[in-house]
Hints:
By secondary structure, this protein is mainly beta. It has a single domain (2-148), classed as Sandwich (Immunoglobulin-like). Helices cover 15% and strands 40% of the residues. The protein is built from one helix and eight strands; from the N terminus they run αββββββββ. It has one helix at 2-23; strands spanning 31-32, 55-57, 63-70, 76-86, 89-95, 103-109, 117-129, 140-148. The strands form two sheets. A five-stranded mixed β-sheet has the order 2-8-7-4-5, with no helix packed on it. The longest helix has 22 residues, at 2-23. It is globular, with a radius of gyration of 18 Å. The model is unreliable at 1-21 (pLDDT under 50).
Amino acid sequence: MLVVSIGFNYYQSNNRQNAAKNESGIAQNTVEWKKQIVNRSGSKEGIKIPGYGEISVSEGAKEMEMALVNPKDNPCYFQFTVLISVEEKQVTLYESQLIEQGRAITVFPVENLPSAGDYKMKVKINTYSLKDRKTPLNGAQVNTVLHVV
Length: 149
């Protein structure tokens, strides 16, 4: 009975910690990002925005592999929205919570994935203050192509 009690208390404690992180708006499904991101702007200051090449995903996939990265030296949180154009409409595939500097989401669930074809894709990046997580800073949008095969 003692083992069950300890296990249950540990489970409750972890659930409270995970709930607190989730309520904070910080993404929990991130990994440390150690790869270097090439700085093509030439600027040493400011917010660094990752670029994206064309992405392929299998038709009917429930998850997508794509690194949604917040470079480690950025002075802000990132929040990503991945959108595609389907028949002149913007369709949201995924929307992240806040991603801390030096972290990335590399696999994420996708909703509304269309049938096989090539689609214009936008990776919208909203940036927020490290102080309060609410004050918006400069954002960006990266355009690419999604191949559903």
